[in-house]
Amino acid sequence: MGLLQTVFRADDEIVGSKFRAIFVGLFVAFGGVLFGYDTGTISGVLAMDYVKSTFTSTGRFTASETSLITAILSAGTFTGAVLAPLVSDTLGRRLGLLISTVIFTIGVILQTAASEMNLLIVGRVIAGAGVGVLSAIVPLYQSEAAPKWIRGAVVSCYQWAITIGLLLAACVNQGTHNRNDSGSYRIPIAIQFLWALIMFIGMALLPESPRFYVKNGKIPQALKALSKLRGLPKDDKYVEAELEEIIANYDYERSFGSTTIWDCFRPANHQLKRILTGIGIQALQQLTGINFIFYYGTQFFANSGIDNPFITQLIMNIVNVVMTIPGIMLIEIAGRRNLLLYGAVGMSVSEFIVAAVGTALPNSNSANKTLIAFSCTFIASFAATWGPLAWVVVGEIYPLRVRGKSVAFCAASNWLFNFAIAYATPYLVDHDKANLQSKVFFIWGGCTFLCFLFVYFYVYETKGLTLEQIDELYDTCPNAMFSKNFVPSHSFAQDSPGAEKAVVEAVEKV
């Protein structure tokens, strides 16, 4: 316990089951494997000789075909993310994740059966819708279920799972890309059935988010769920105190009136500032250019004259997985703002070096070595900071009454920019189009400089705060630059005797 408190800077005594708090968060993060594996598979599949000869008449994918096949997944995920609140706010976070795995599985079936481009595209759209629902609900569930001392690390594990999915996809592609039959692409795609099955079985066993139950007036069920998540008896004083604060905070939020989708964009309770922060950080995460590496990396490295592009892509994925771990360990020590700022600097410097060297010494051996080296430092900077932390921020900063809708909007903005970048990139780098090649990193490097400015002026430090205390942070701290000095002084439960009464009645009922 002392080690946990040291690593995660827990200011208070850690109560309840440490194992359960970590396990639940880690398992829900497994949804990121579905997301990452699906994203990583297509990069290698489109570079396979058998796929190019089977799915095209010319033996190569044109820029428009590459754009459509790759980006269409993001069109589905955007739709799924936008529609996610219809499930998560009505049926629950847990059931929403179960439904997302079913939708995803249907898409995988169609992609596995495909032997021509149209069915492959339809399958990617449907699978994308499942991933979109999942991407909007996983960080939401994690943020609401995890205790404050480990919440940031738990949500960060979602991004770590994405990187693991990308790595697994690269490994499988490496093992099948030389096959001269349909197994070259069907094996990598069909393996996704296993990931969906694991996610479905696990979510069938985990409890619902207690905050969802409070939002829907089901206090006894909220007490049971919170008791399971914390590994403490239902009448434990810590469980009762936490539930009182959740109820009281939600009662305060309801004083602003009924909730509609437009409340996500109203100035009340600083919601407009929060939603713009979430949408901005998700958009900028995509504009770093990270998915250029994972969508088109294999083809880009091949076009740059690098031998064994599949191995190079595998190296990038290993760096991505390994370097996410320091970010998870540091998030509760260094805080959200510091990591995001340092990460933006590291990414920007790396990308400008890749762009400059690739432009000055195209296709030379020294340029290729530099491209690989600084692509790795770029990925390392992203993996330890902007990769996980963009999801942490959007999972934390919203009031309960609009949290599901707000997180969904942020996830949708991520997928909208993902789609735009995935669709436009082939036209930017293709030899027959703009032919920017390494020069495209000048664009990404400029965007990562904007990342630094955005965090400095707009992202609040939320380390060590409960979700309810973050509401007080926004109420009392007008400027993100001074948010590190915030000390919570207010308890909603103290001003709401009704919350204590509701908890007492719930304890009696269960």
TrEMBL record:
Cellular compartments annotated: Membrane
SUPFAM superfamilies: MFS general substrate transporter (SSF103473)
Keywords: Glycoprotein, Membrane, Sugar transport, Transmembrane, Transmembrane helix, Transport
Chain ranges passing through the membrane: 21-48, 68-88, 95-114, 120-141, 153-175, 187-206, 275-298, 310-332, 339-360, 372-394, 406-429, 441-459
Record's bilayer topology term: Multi-pass membrane protein
A cellular-component GO term for this protein: plasma membrane
Assigned protein family: Belongs to the major facilitator superfamily. Sugar transporter (TC 2.A.1.1) family.
Entry protein name: LADA_0B00342g1_1
Lineage of origin: Eukaryota, Fungi, Dikarya, Ascomycota, Saccharomycotina
